[in-house]
């Protein structure tokens, strides 16, 4: 019996191996010009599959016989996967890149240059997004969509605290926050939930006060965080955080997700992308609304980080023209309208509507377009600085100076 | 005699209590995963924890199964895992016999190579392995993934099976040889039954390692219809948008089921008393 | 045997013996051949590539063009001159020691406990272990993070309810020590099932009656363990220890995901995270290859004692 089971085991193994080889033999045929491969982030599959399908249909009616193979990626590891295909082949013809990821790859020559004028609305592309796809005067990335940060808040709590008008300045928001806190003495309650090391939000203060992260002076990067204006911004951020948020001073903006805290009833408002309304819980959905975060000067919103995605064609692609055509279809006016309907900011100013999300994008900032910027992000230099400032480990000046030097040395690497 | 037996029983009761306490602590995270999978969203995020939901929902399981490619990817995982485990165990057992029962030139070198492969940081191998498999046109195929997994699982299996073989005294086999059994006969009648627990423990390990492997599956497989279930699972976390915790927990619970079933099928082999007494009896 | 009269019979017998001996000598090679082929074909080139890469400048630019620039030992030099590397190494060695010791001690105790409990509890406990084992690491990390999170972690809730202190909004991820302690707990928890089940399978080889006889003779449990159980478990214990060293030294997923990318700084690097940050995130593959090979060397040094013992045991038999 035992012998028989061993023999059976071996047989199964051999058969299964044969079966998989047989099935894979058919599959290893090289991608021909009759098919293009597109790497999109998983957001597209879960968020707007219809837009993808429509673009594919448009593409296929223009190029009969050519199929589009869309493969979905995760933000966390798509670059490792991409690097492997750059080395070994078999990579995509079109790839979606985060706008802060672009520069490093453009500088290394990973993408093919594209003809900007051939894309819909390219003359009015959002400035920040278009800049993330340009390098050395050429266009490598086509803006796909953008997202901004807004305030999501509880109308019922605001009303109960006697706040009849939405804050017009940061200072007024802090005053309102104190009122909210007085009405909600619950332990751990945040009038404005923001995570301590949410650098996207913190840098908004820096830019609001006229500061910056780094600038290029005759080919060399110089850190700006220790400039008086930046330090004023950081001080304003620290004061704002300490007065309004009970979040951990060392955590980031996804641990926990702000909307979970909000849904727990522990926040009167929170800062984040406009799609946060999706997940505030059934109980609070009817009394949830959004506004644009005000700046320290009346009448001006705080500059928000303009996050977003670009589409690029890797140099390893064997059908670059087809790839560019697909991008045209996927970023066409009708496609962008579809994305807009799903709560994204379309890629061009002439398509902008008047949603909170889009109004917030009117004043925005973007990271330095430096080859090594990704290293600054991955090294958590800014987050580390914010944790030091909020926990009083270092003074604002000390933390900002050391971060500033650090950033300059990373950006100036060969 | 009865006093001793009573003492023994009391002692066992004590050990039982300890065992149950450890069980509770160890299993708590698993319990938390499963119970979360059944909770409505409000209970999942509430500050005061809900231990058992009084109004369990199957919605999360429905959401998970409805996510595209669930069944296809489960099938892929099953193929990859069963082929990898079956071939690896057979090949590794052969090599383990060579190492534990034969002296031969190059034996030491082989042992060192086997353990050395384990020491390579896998992170360093991602790109070179991709390049090699791309050369053989084995990227985006299950076969490519299977051979990759075999290179990781085989050294481990050889190493552990050899250890189990060393635990079996040679005299047993020699005695059988003297009794006139052939080598194959000894293998079938003596080694294999005694190795049962070791083979099962090793294959459980190989099964779970390959079933749960993520990064190579992620890098080597492109089409969603060809991916394994861990890659499928990663899509719950890979978005820049909201994470559906309930569905993630339901999906994780579902993907753990095959492992548990496999273990239940083979666990009898690890049971005590199966071989006790046979050794040095 | 009959005196030397039957010559043809003798000769054929000798010839047969010669043949069996030759076959016997090739048998072990035949047995290991499949493995050597599989591993050689798949890993041979990557290994060569890794070594070659470690002597080249190989960044994203070179990767795209498939051509590195030879720089000799510059990558190794730059790594060995990096203070972060040495701090990381020290931290990783301490971390590995803690993890391996905890895993092995608790694992052995649990395996011995499994022998002593009743059948029902044994099945309960071992299926519990398998449940733990069956959890994909990525998921396990999410659950652990969730149980310990600042805002509504169930651990904080329970500790507060038990009156151990006010753990409301206690931040388990505030200091490096506390971060790595949590990672250790997670790793030991995840490693126990494998260790316990393997040791338990090994215990199945321990002769029951011998233990009983010793107990009847009045031997204390510790002596029974040392003189009867331990020698039989020794090969398996050695394997598990050396494997644990190797795995814990190179562990990546648990610390990276539990601490969270946003909190990883040079102050809490472990070796494999250092490798990932330097090699992949900075796309400096040459340097990454050098770090990989240095890691191989270091883990070899760390585990050499166990590995040698392992090899010796086989020879003594």
Quaternary state reads heterotrimer
The CATH homologous superfamily of the largest domain in chain A is termed Periplasmic binding protein-like II
Greatest interface by residues involved: B-C, 106 and 108 residues
**What's the end-to-end separation of chain C, in Å?**
31 Å
Indicate the CATH architecture of the largest domain in chain A.
Answer: 3-Layer(aba) Sandwich
**CATH class category label of the largest domain in chain A:** Alpha Beta
- The total strand number of chain C stands at 2
- CATH fold title of the largest domain in chain A: D-Maltodextrin-Binding Protein, domain 2
Low-confidence stretches of chain C: none
Unreliable sequence segments of chain A: 1-32
Per DSSP E runs of 2 or more residues, the count of β-strands of chain A stands at 14
CATH architecture of chain C: Orthogonal Bundle
Rounded to the nearest angstrom, the radius of gyration of chain A is: 25 Å
Biggest sheet descriptor of chain A: 5 strands, mixed
Tally of discrete structural domains of chain C: 1
Q: So what's the CATH class of chain C?
A: Mainly Alpha
The average pLDDT of chain A is 89
CATH topology-level fold name of chain C = MetI-like fold
Gyration radius of chain C, rounded: 27 Å
Provide a descriptive summary of the structure in words:
The complex is a heterotrimer of chains A (414), B (281) and C (317). Chain A is of the alpha/beta class and 414 residues long. Chain A folds into 2 domains: 34-148 and 307-365, Periplasmic binding protein-like II (D-Maltodextrin-Binding Protein, domain 2, 3-Layer(aba) Sandwich), CATH 3.40.190.10; 149-306 and 367-411, D-Maltodextrin-Binding Protein, domain 2 (3-Layer(aba) Sandwich). In chain A, 43% of the residues lie in helices and 15% in strands. Chain A has helices at 2-27, 42-47, 49-62, 78-88, 102-107, 127-132, 155-160, 170-183, 199-208, 228-244, 258-263, 320-330, 333-341, 356-360, 373-378, 381-390, 396-411, and strands at 35-41, 67-73, 94-98, 134-135, 138-139, 141-147, 149-154, 214-217, 220-223, 269-273, 288-291, 304-305, 307-312, 364-365. Chain A has a 5-stranded mixed beta sheet with strand order 2-1-3-13-6. Chain A starts with a helix and ends with a helix. The model of chain A is unreliable at 1-32 (pLDDT under 50). With 281 residues, chain B is mostly helical. Chain B has a single domain, classed as MetI-like fold (Orthogonal Bundle). In chain B, helix 1 runs antiparallel to helix 12 (245-266), helix 3 crosses helix 12 and helix 4 (70-101) packs parallel to helix 7 (142-166). Chain C is mostly helical and 317 residues long. Chain C has one domain (62-316): Orthogonal Bundle (MetI-like fold), CATH 1.10.3720. Chain C is built from 13 helices and 2 strands; from the N terminus they run H-E-H-E-H-H-H-H-H-H-H-H-H-H-H. In chain C, helix 10 runs antiparallel to helix 13. The longest helix of chain C is centred in the first third of the chain and has 47 residues, at 7-53. Chain C is flat and about 85 Å long. The mean pLDDT of chain C is 87.
């Amino acid at each position: 019996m035992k012998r028989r089971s061993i023999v059976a085991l071996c047989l199964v193994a051999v058969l299964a191996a044969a079966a998989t080889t047989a099935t894979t033999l058919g599959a290893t045929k090289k991608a021909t010009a009759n098919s293009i491969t597109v790497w999109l982030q998983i957001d597209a599959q879960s968020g707007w599959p219809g837009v993808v399908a429509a673009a594919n249909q448009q593409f296929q009616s223009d190029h009969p016989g050519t199929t589009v193979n869309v493969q979905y990626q995760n933000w966390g590891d798509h670059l490792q996967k991409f690097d492997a295909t750059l080395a070994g082949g078999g990579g995509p013809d079109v790839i979606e890149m985060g706008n802060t990821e672009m520069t490093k790859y453009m500088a290394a020559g990973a993408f093919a240059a594209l003809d900007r004028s051939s894309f819909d609305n390219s003359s009015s592309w959002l400035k920040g997004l278009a800049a993330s796809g340009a390098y050395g005067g050429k266009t490598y990335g086509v803006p796909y969509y953008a997202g901004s940060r807004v305030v999501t808040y509880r109308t019922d709590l605001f009303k109960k605290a006697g706040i009849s008008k939405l804050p017009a300045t940061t200072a007024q928001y802090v005053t309102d926050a104190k009122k909210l806190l007085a009405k909600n003495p619950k332990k751990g309650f945040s009038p404005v939930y923001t995570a301590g090391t949410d650098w996207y939000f913190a840098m908004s203060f820096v830019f609001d006060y006229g500061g910056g992260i780094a600038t290029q002076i005759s080919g060399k990067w110089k850190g700006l965080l220790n400039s008086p204006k930046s330090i004023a911004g950081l001080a304003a951020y620290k004061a704002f955080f300490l007065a309004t948020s009970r979040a951990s001073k060392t955590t980031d903006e996804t641990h926990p997700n702000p909307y979970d805290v909000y849904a727990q009833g522990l926040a009167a408002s929170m800062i984040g992308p406009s799609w946060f309304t999706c997940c505030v819980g059934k109980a609070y959905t009817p009394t949830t609304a959004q506004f644009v975060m005000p700046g320290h000067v009346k009448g001006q919103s705080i500059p928000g980080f303009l996050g977003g995605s670009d589409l690029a064609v890797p140099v390893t692609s064997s059908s670059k023209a087809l790839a560019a055509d697909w991008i045209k279809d996927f970023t066409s006016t009708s496609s962008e309208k579809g994305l807009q309907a799903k709560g994204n900011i379309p890629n061009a100013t002439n398509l902008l509507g008047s949603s909170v999300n889009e109004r917030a994008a009117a004043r925005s900032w973007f990271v330095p377009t430096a080859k090594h910027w990704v290293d600054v992000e991955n090294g958590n230099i800014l987050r580390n600085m914010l944790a030091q400032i909020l926990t009083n480990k270092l003074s604002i000046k000390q933390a900002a100076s050391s971060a500033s030097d650090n950033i300059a040395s990373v950006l100036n690497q060969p | 005699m009865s006093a001793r037996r009573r003492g023994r029983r009391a002692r066992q009761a004590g050990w039982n209590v300890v065992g149950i306490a450890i069980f509770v602590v160890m299993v708590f995270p698993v319990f938390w995963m499963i119970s979360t999978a059944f909770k409505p969203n409000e209970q999942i995020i509430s500050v005061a924890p809900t231990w058992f939901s009084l109004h369990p929902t199957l919605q999360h399981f429905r959401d998970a199964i409805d996510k595209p490619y669930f069944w296809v990817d489960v099938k892929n995982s099953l193929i990859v895992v069963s082929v990898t485990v079956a071939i690896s165990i057979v090949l590794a057992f052969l090599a383990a016999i060579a190492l534990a029962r034969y002296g031969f030139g190059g034996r030491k070198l082989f042992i060192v190579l086997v353990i050395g492969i384990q020491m390579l940081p896998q992170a360093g191998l991602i790109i070179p392995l991709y390049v090699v498999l791309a050369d053989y046109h084995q990227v985006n195929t299950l076969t490519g993934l299977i051979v990759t997994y075999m290179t990781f699982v085989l050294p481990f299996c050889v190493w552990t099976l050899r250890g189990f073989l060393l635990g079996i005294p040679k005299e047993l086999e020699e005695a059988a040889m003297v009794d006139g059994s052939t080598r194959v006969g000894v293998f079938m009648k003596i080694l294999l039954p005694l190795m049962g627990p070791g083979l099962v423990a090793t294959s459980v390990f190989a099964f779970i390692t390959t079933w749960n492997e993520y990064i190579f599956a992620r890098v080597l497989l492109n089409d969603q219809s060809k991916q394994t279930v861990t890659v499928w699972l990663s899509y719950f976390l890979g978005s820049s948008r909201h994470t559906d915790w309930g569905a993630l927990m339901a999906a994780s619970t579902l993907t753990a089921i095959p492992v548990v079933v496999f273990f239940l099928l083979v666990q009898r082999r690890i049971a005590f008393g199966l071989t006790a007494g046979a050794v040095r009896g | 045997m009959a005196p030397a009269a039957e010559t043809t019979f003798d000769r054929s017998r000798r010839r047969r013996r010669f043949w069996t001996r030759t076959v016997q000598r090739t048998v072990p090679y035949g047995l290991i051949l499949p493995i050597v082929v599989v591993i050689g074909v798949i890993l041979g080139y990557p290994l060569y590539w890794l070594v070659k890469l470690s002597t080249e400048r190989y960044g994203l630019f070179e990767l795209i063009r498939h051509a590195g620039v030879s720089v000799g030992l510059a990558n190794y030099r730059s790594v060995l001159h990096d203070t972060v590397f040495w701090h990381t190494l020290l931290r990783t060695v301490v971390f590995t020691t803690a993890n391996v010791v905890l895993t092995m001690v608790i694992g052995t105790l649990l395996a011995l406990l499994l022998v002593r409990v009743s059948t029902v509890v044994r099945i309960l406990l071992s299926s519990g272990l398998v449940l733990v084992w069956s959890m994909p690491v990525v998921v396990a990390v999410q659950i652990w993070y969730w149980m310990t999170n600042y805002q509504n972690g169930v651990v904080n809730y329970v500790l507060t309810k038990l009156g151990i202190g006010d753990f409301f909004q206690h931040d388990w991820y505030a200091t490096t020590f506390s971060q790595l302690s949590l990672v250790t707990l997670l790793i030991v928890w995840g490693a126990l099932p494998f260790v316990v089940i393997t040791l338990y399978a090994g215990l199945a080889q321990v002769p029951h009656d011998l233990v009983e006889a010793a107990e009847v003779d009045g031997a204390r449990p510790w002596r029974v363990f040392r003189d009867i159980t331990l020698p039989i478990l020794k090969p398996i214990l050695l394997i598990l220890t050396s494997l644990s060293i190797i795995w814990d030294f190179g562990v990546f997923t648990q610390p990276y995901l539990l601490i969270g990318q946003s909190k990883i700084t040079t102050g809490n690097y472990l070796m494999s995270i250092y490798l990932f940050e330097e090699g992949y995130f900075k796309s400096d593959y040459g340097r990454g290859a050098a770090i990989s090979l240095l890691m191989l060397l270091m883990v070899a040094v760390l585990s050499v004692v166990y590995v040698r013992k392992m090899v010796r045991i086989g020879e003594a038999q």
